[in-house]
Automatic annotation (TrEMBL):
It catalyses: Hydrolyzes free adenine bases from 7,8-dihydro-8-oxoguanine:adenine mismatched double-stranded DNA, leaving an apurinic site. One of its GO terms (molecular function) is adenine/guanine mispair binding. The keyword DNA repair applies. The gene is mutY. This is Adenine DNA glycosylase. It holds the Pfam family EndIII_4Fe-2S. It comes from the Bacteria. Belongs to the Nth/MutY family.
Length: 349
């Protein structure tokens, strides 16, 4: 039995019952694929259900505000996905009359859609023979064919894409692509793969050569950068605080945060108070500043670790950009701030 038939046969007997597998609606397939990039299904599934309930069509998503979209996305991470999702929904709704492009090449033209997502939508929704190559597929192919080319190199991406194209089941690309991804997720797992029950074990070269744990090969990432965030949690006598929207192209673009002072290392209250322009003018000497968490909360992102401390600032005269503490839960914020708000019970302060 050839490779793709073995995978499809396995898939039909082992696939998980997931909502996006019960439809070929390109809106829902696109939504699920964007959400599941660098995200486990267990984590992404509740978000998918929330989005499809709140925004059942691409028109509903396009008509929502960015704040609504980011709030619903809160905690899922990689927020550029949500912003691109929102922008693309507007293009599809307003410029394409709600119809997604029906082929790989035109899907690639939409913001936030790369090779992987375009292949998934084109194959699952339109039966185009466009091979999907994600982390699971890289792992299956690298092990089965004993390929040591790094999967995160340009040479590796070309090699694996060419191989995936060659192996493609052109008669049933939708089922084959989903089978390949599901096989990598459930059978050929990163750690402790189920080789003893694997239907490909007799011909798997990595298993034969005792190299399962060595594959796939990845180039080492760049050194992780350390950053030190000091959030100022202003609390006024009127039960108001300050939230600011992050702008620019850095992390958490479009989300809200407490006023931030980034330092080069951990600092004390004296250094914080001495920072020019950080506090409302004229009220510096009446301020009560206390450190909420002496031990910084370390928030780990793929390319940086953020050491975060929250400073509670009382008796400040707040003039602009204030919001009632009772409404703070309505704003989309990074997960580390959401956790602080919940732990400190700020909305009940």
């Amino acid at each position: 039995m050839i490779f793709h038939k073995i995978l499809i046969n396995w898939y039909l007997g082992n696939k998980r019952d997931l909502p996006w597998r019960k439809t070929s609606d390109p809106y829902r397939i696109w939504l699920s694929e964007i959400m599941l990039q660098q995200t486990r299904i267990e984590q992404g599934l509740p978000y998918y259900l929330s989005f499809t309930t709140s925004f059942p069509t691409v028109f509903d998503l396009a008509n929502a505000s960015q704040d609504e979209v980011l709030k619903l996305w809160q905690g899922l991470g990689y927020y550029s996905r949500a912003r691109n999702l929102h922008e693309t929904s507007k293009v599809v709704a307003y410029e394409l009359d709600g119809k997604f492009p029906d082929n790989y090449k035109d899907l690639l033209k939409l913001k936030g859609i790369g090779d992987y997502t375009a292949s998934a939508v084109a194959s699952i929704c339109y039966n185009e023979a466009a091979p999907v190559v994600d982390g699971n597929v890289y792992r299956v192919l690298a092990r089965y064919f004993d390929i040591e080319t790094p999967i995160n190199s340009s040479a590796g991406q070309k090699e694996f894409k060419a191989l995936a194209t060659e192996l493609m089941d052109k008669e049933d690309p939708a089922t084959y692509n989903q089978a390949n991804m599901e096989f990598g997720a459930l059978q050929c797992k990163p750690q402790n793969p189920l080789c003893e029950s694997c239907p490909l074990s007799n011909s798997c070269l990595a298993l034969k050569n005792n190299k399962i744990a060595m594959l796939p090969v990845k180039l080492k990432k760049a050194k992780v950068k350390k950053r030190y965030f000091n959030y100022l949690v202003f609390l006024s006598e009127e039960n108001e605080t300050i939230l600011e929207q992050r702008i620019g192209k850095g992390i958490w673009e479009g989300l809200y945060q407490f006023p931030l002072m980034e330092s080069t290392s951990l600092i004390d209250a004296e250094a914080l108070l001495a920072e020019p322009g950080l506090f409302p003018e004229g009220g510096e000497y009446n301020l009560k500043v206390s450190l909420y968490n002496d031990t910084p909360i370390i928030h780990k992102l793929s390319h940086q670790h953020i050491y975060t401390r929250f400073w509670i600032v009382e008796n400040a005269e707040l003039n602009t950009n204030t919001i009632p503490l009772s409404k703070i839960q309505e704003y989309p914020v990074p997960v580390l701030i959401a956790n602080f708000i919940s732990e400190f019970e700020l909305d009940e302060y």
